[in-house]
Structure formats: structure tokens, C-alpha cells
Amino acid sequence: MSKSNLLKELYSNIGTTGALTFSSKSLVKKMLSYSELSKAKLIVELGGGDGSITQGIIDRMGEESELLVFEINPSFCKAMEAQFPQENVRVINDSAENIDLYLKGRSADYVLSSLPFTLIPKEATDQILIKSKNALTPEGKFIQICYSYLLKNLFKKYFDSVEANFTLKNFPPAFVMVCR
């Protein structure tokens, strides 16, 4: 799928994508700087979108790592499946609410998310965050890109520690929340 078609898809589904544009390389770099993906066994991405974060993850993860990418938009999934044919990358066209069904009892070292929690119904948000926390190893991290500092209070309901980091190098400027 071309970048213009991806942008068209983004704007026609703004209610589920929650973004005006895709994540900048600077934002992806900032987000991933709070992880050690080369040592991770299992990584989960929530909201694969155009694959910009996915590409950053793949560039940094080890050969033995496995990546599960959740995306509810079928067009984005199809494009990502073509872009990322690696055997250790699995694009899943399903809601992040069902993360537990795909982990099959395994734990993730990282759950990396760009989901638009301000647009997701409360019940779904609760399920996603509860299941994400339960999916992590004891040392694991949930790392979230968001555009409102106020979301820190939401994450504090589910995680013991939430660190907010701001970057201007994105449009719009964004926060990276690191939750443990």
C-alpha cells in the first residue's frame, strides 16, 4: 500500500487510529530507547498502523525474538504483512483486548503501544490495560505513545510505576509513558 493510500486510510478511520499523522522516526527512536529489544524473547505491539514503530522494533530486536503486532484495521494489516514477511513477526488482525488468546500462557518482555486510549471505550481500555499488565514478565515494561499528559493518571491505575517523557520531535508533540 502506498504512503498516500495509508494516509487516506488513516484519515478515513481517525476514530480508531486516533492520530493526525504517523509516528515520526524521532518519536519511534525515543519510545524504543526505553527498551532493550535485542535481549527480548517476546515483544507485543498494540496498534501497528503504518508499521513505523514495527520497523523500529524489527531493526532492534534479536534474531531469536518474536514480535506479535495487533492491528484492527484490515488494510493496515495487509500492508504490514507484505512489508514484514519475517517468520518471527506475526501481524494479528484483532483487538488488543484479546492479547491473552495469542500469548498462549507466555509472557512478554515489552508491550509497546500507540493505541488512542482517549477514543477507546472505558470497558475496552480496562481490558487492554489489565491484560497487557498481566502479559508482562516481572521485569517487563508497557511503553505507550500518547498526546496527553493526563493519560498518566489512567496508567497509574494499572501499573505501580509510570514515568512520563516528552518529545517535541513529532507532530503533534507526544509523550512516551514507561509503565512497570
Short description:
The protein is α/β, with parallel strands linked by helices and 180 residues long. Helices cover 37% and strands 24% of the residues. It has helices spanning 3-12, 14-17, 25-32, 52-60, 74-83, 99-103, 122-135, 151-156, and strands spanning 42-46, 66-70, 89-92, 108-113, 136-146, 162-167, 174-179.
Main attributes of the structure:
180 residues; alpha/beta; 8 helices; globular; Phospholipid N-methyltransferase; SAM-dependent_MTases_sf
Count of strand segments: 7
Estimated structural class: alpha/beta
Q: For the terminal residues, how far apart are their CA atoms?
A: 36 Å
CATH topology descriptor? Rossmann fold
CATH superfamily: Vaccinia Virus protein VP39
InterPro entries: Methyltransf_25, SAM-dependent_MTases_sf
Domain Methyltransferase: 43-140
Keywords: Methyltransferase, Transferase
Protein name: Phospholipid N-methyltransferase
Describe the structure in your own words.
One of its GO terms (biological process) is methylation. This is Phospholipid N-methyltransferase. With 180 residues, this protein is an alpha/beta fold. The protein has a single domain, classed as 3-Layer(aba) Sandwich (Rossmann fold). It has helices at residues 3-12, 14-17, 25-32, 52-60, 74-83, 99-103, 122-135, 151-156, and strands at residues 42-46, 66-70, 89-92, 108-113, 136-146, 162-167, 174-179. The chain has a 7-stranded mixed sheet. Helix 3 (25-32) crosses helix 4. The longest helix is centred in the C-terminal third of the chain and has 14 residues, at 122-135. It is globular, with a radius of gyration of 15 Å. The model is unreliable at 13-18 (pLDDT under 50).
